[in-house]
Structure formats: structure tokens, C-alpha cells
Amino acid sequence: MLKMAAKRMLIAVPSLVGVVIVTFLLTRALPGDPAAYFAGPAATKEAIEQIRVKLGLDKPLYVQFVRYVGDLARGDLGNSLTTGQPVASEIKTRLPASAELTLLGLVVAVSIAVPLGILAATRPNSMIDHLCRVIATAGVSLPVFFTGLILVYVFYYLIGWAPAPLGRLDVFFSPPPHVTGFYLIDSLIAGDGEVFAASLKQLVLPALTLGIFALAPIARMTRASMLAVLASDFVRTARASGLSPMTVVVTYAFRNAMLPVVTTLGMVFSFLLGANVLVEKVFAWPGIGSFAVEALIASDFAPLQGFVLTMAVMYVALNLLIDVLYGIIDPRVRIEA
Amino acid sequence: MSNASPGQQSRSAPSSQARSAPFLTRLRPARVASYLAQVGPPQGAAEPSESVAALHAHLAETQAPPTLTLAHNTGLAAALRHARYILSENVVTGFAFALFILIVLAALIGPYLLPYDPLASDTASALKPPSAAHWFGTDQLGRDVFSRVVVATRLDFLIAVTSVALVFLMGGLAGVAAGFLGGWTDRVVGRIADTIMAFPLFVLAMGIVAALGNTVENVVLATAIVNFPLYARVARAEANVRREAGFVLAARLSGNGEMRILLAQVLPNIMPIMVVQMSLTMGYAILNAAGLSFIGLGVRPPTAEWGIMVAEGAVFMVSGEWWIALFPGAALMVAVFCFNLLGDGLRDIVDPQRRT
Fold first, then answer.
1. C-beta atoms of B195 and A16 within 8 A
2. Rg (CA), chain B
3. Are B220 and B159 in contact (CB under 8 A)?
4. Residues of B in Cβ contact (< 8 Å) with A19
5. Distance between CA atoms of A105 and A207, rounded to whole angstroms?
6. What is the mean pLDDT of residues A64-72?
7. Predicted structure pTM score
8. CB contact under 8 A, B202 and A275
């Protein structure tokens, strides 16, 4: 098991190298003069030249690249142009907010999509099967920022159940003492029920928005994979042996149908991390996505570069995790590896 | 036909309901033919007869009965008859197709039929809810939301079409070359695709637009780049199975160079699959572009574009002026929904066994 995990990690190395090269190229090798850009529009020629030397932009490209990788190794992502703060520390403080939201969104998606897919597969061409198909097609068609706005309008403005879409916690509460950075977990550790309820209230709508978005591919894949497994010989044998339909579906079919679903999770994460940016903007969520959008508006490239790099590294790590998970679910993969 | 070949049986495993019935399977070649008649001859094919020849080869490849002659199906009347037949059998695809026509019409002639100037502000009638005068209401500057939604169709549609065409040129050609030539071409294309796939796609698109410059052209380019792996992979897989196909060997034997075979034989053969791929990714392309303009990339105000209109209306959602964001958002949703349904429908026609 450990050996397989190590092997998978080695496979992830080229992806990481690619990610670093692309993020480097995004700033350095593209049209336009980064020095003039960093100096600002009002800078003189001498000032630009000074910045060029300071940034090392007068050196050949490979020297710059080595320098860039060296900075990365020390955890230095540069400074934000607008705030002057190091990008790395900003991302570190904002990351838990994004992670909490994304993970909860995934939980919402999986807990709706998997049962729906199973129900649809066990009753082909029934009402629930059609419902599954409609939801799956509608889910991918909904622009995620639009879903979020509709939910805000209905649940905040019309019904008044949800709090104003302004961040992680109502202004009347102070955040729980920092342990994990996840407000839900931290408030539980602190034993503060009120803060837990308040932060959950803020989380529900954005998490639901993300969940609706991620639901479609998972439901689709669960249905297809369950259909294939239910038609296989071992399920027929299990049925013929007189096992209850529940046992056949849950213990026999579901476990085998899980594999393609876990594989789809990789793609789902790609969507979720992207959608996260839009959802954070709609709900004024103080995560790394809104950090990137703010930087984008201010034409501040260092935070954006740091954001792209962080997201990509996280995505590579998640894919790695999925691969390892795959090995746990399916022992055959372990033997091949 | 009822005792289908083993290859076909194993491929149709996921959804073997009514679709693998012998009756429908026998109809399939004709459906492909009329589909081809709808979309026109594949790129690179000089005339219809060549596309039919390519189709024959494609059918031979997918183990369909070779006895069917398609010559009598090439007329315009026959094509229309077949289109009607397919649409009547598949109501949802027919509906999506009608919607598609509507969207194209709105993009083409919509701007000339508008009741108001989409850019003219009229502060006296700002933030008015939908009424007989303003069907979709007015926004904070008193601009007519209906006019803006209709005008935006052209821009959104254009962004999606150009980015899909661009990625077809880049990804499709690279994928065909990788699958057909193999060797280092395959490795280079594969490495590029892997690197792009290592990013969350929307995030990469953000980075590309921010780095190249905040313009609509770069939004198109970024959307194309993030879709590259998808196209390259499909094209590669399809070209790979045709590497040693009979028609390729025949072409090689009659003295054609590898490049010529690639462009004149293999590429036209995988066109049906690629067209399906294009219509499936159209929806994603529109969503991606609208998402980018929602966060302030690409299209600038006061240009009418669905994503930016939703962004402008977002502020008013919490104070109850729902119509400013709802209508452009709904238009976006309907367009994406239409493209997805259409893509699914085309896929069912061209390649029914891939249905999930």
C-alpha cells in the first residue's frame, strides 16, 4: 500500500514540474514588459530599468527560472502590489475559508448525487430515472454564479431564512479561536454552539450552490456505472442465491460501481475549484478565490500567480489522493502498481 | 444482426436497454448519413461522394452491416426527410434543435429588431420591473434589459463558436497527428495535454487572460486552450484505432504520403465524433466565457454580454430587483442547456453506444 502511494507520488512529479513551468511562463515569457508593468504606468525609463535589474529580468530566461524555483522552495510567492503584503501569508490565512466551502459543497453533491444515481439505475425508465437525467443535464447547464444569485434572492430576500451573503460570519459574532481555520470545526472545539450555528447558516447557501453544480457529473456517472454492474453475472448470481435486493444493491453492486465514480471525482474537483472563485465572489466569501478576483481588478499579478499555483498544486494533490483512494477501494489496482 | 459480434456486445454494456435492439441497430447507418447531410461534408472532403466513401469506411470500422448503399440518400429532399425522421423519433433533440435555430436567429437578426437601443440610458425609468413597455424591465441606468439580452446573444455565440473552432484546429489536428503518427509527436502532445489537465481549468483560463491581457480575443483563446486536452484525447483515440485500417493501408499502397493520409483519409473519418465533441463543449465554452466576464475579464461594460449583465445585476438581487440578473442568467442557462441537449442528441445518433 505504501509502496503504491509512493509510486503515485512519483507520477505526480511531472505534473508539478509542468505547473511550475506554466505559472513561470505566464509572467515572464509573454508579450509586454513585466518591468514596466511592475513599475506602474507613471514610471520613468530609469525606474523601469532599475526594477528590471532588481527583478532579475535582465538575466537570461533560465537564470530567472532557477531564481523563481528557488523563491518557491522558500515559500516566497512575491508581494502584492496593492497591499505590499507577502502573497504566501495572505493565501495561507484565506485558504481554510475556501477549503471549508469546497469540501462542504462536495459533501452536499455526493450525498444527493450518489443515492439519486443508484435509485435511477435500479429503476430504469421510471420517474426517478427521468428526474435524474433532467437534473444531470440541468445541473451542468446552470451557470454557478447564477444559481448562487437565485438562491440568495429566494432564501435571503423573499423568505428571509438565510443571512445576508456577506462572508463567513455575521458581524455580531467573532470568529472562534484558530485551530484548523475551519469555523465549523473550530467552534465545536471551542464548544461555542452559537458561533457554530451562525457559521453554518452562512455556509449553507454557497455550499448548496457548489453542490448543485457538482451534482450532475456524479449522478450521471453513478447511474451509468450502477447500470453496468447490475447487469453483470455476479449480481445475477447474488440475486439467484436469494439475497435480499437491498443486500445485492448496497453490498454487491454499489461497492463495484464506486470505482468509476471515484475517478470522476478528479474532474469534479477541477470544476469545483474553478466554480469556487465565482461562488466566493457572489457570497463575498473571504477565500483565495475572491483574493484572486480582487487582484485581477487591480491588475496585481503576483497574487494571481500565487493563486493559480496554489490551486494547481492542490488539484495535483487531490488527484493523488483519489488515486490512493482508488487503491484502497480496488485491491486489483494495488497489485498492478 | 440479432447475434451481434462480440465486440459490439461488450461495448454496449453500460446502457443496453432499447438501443441495442436489432431494429434500431440496423437503422443506424441511415441515421449517420442524414446526420452527415445535416452538418455538411467533413472538412477536407472535396465533394459529397467522398464524404460518403469516408462514411462507409467509418461504418466498416464500427462493424455496421456493409450491405447498405447510401447513394440514394444524398439528395436534399432525402436529407430533409431523414432529418425529420430523426427529430420525430427524438423529441428532446428536436426541441433542442428548434431552440438552437432560435438562438442563431437572435444572434443574426436580433439586433435589427429591437424596441430600444441596448446602450441608451434613460435615468427617468431606471430599475423598473418588467412591463408591457419593457418586457424584461430596465437596469440601474434605465437601459432595456430585453434589448441587451438579445444583443448579447451575438457576442456570446460568437465567443463560443470561435473558441470551439479554434480548439478544434489546435486540439483536433494535434490529436489526430499524435494518434496516427505516434512516436515523439504523441509524447509531446500528450505532455502538453497532461500539463493543462494539471490545472483546474477555469483557474488556468483566469491566469491566461490575466497574463495575455484583458481582451475578448484572449478569453476566446483561453477557453480554447483549456479545452485542448479533451479534443486532443478524443482525436488521438479515434485516429489511433484507424492507424492500420484497411482504407489507410490502401491509401498508403497507392502511394499517398503520411501527411496526406492523415488529412485526407483519417481526419474526415473522425469528423462525426469531433462534431459531437464540438457541440458538447459549446455549452462549456459559453459558461467559461460568461464566468470570466462575470469576474471582470474580457468583455468590458457597457457592452452587453450575459455574464457581465448578471454581474451588474448581482448587487440588486439582495435589494429585490431580480429582473436585471435573472433574464441574462436565464438566457445563458437556456443556451447552454440547448447546446448540451443537442450534443447529447448528436452523440446518440453518431455513436449510440457511448450514451450514459
1. no
2. 23
3. yes
4. 195, 198-199
5. 4
6. 84
7. 0.78
8. yes
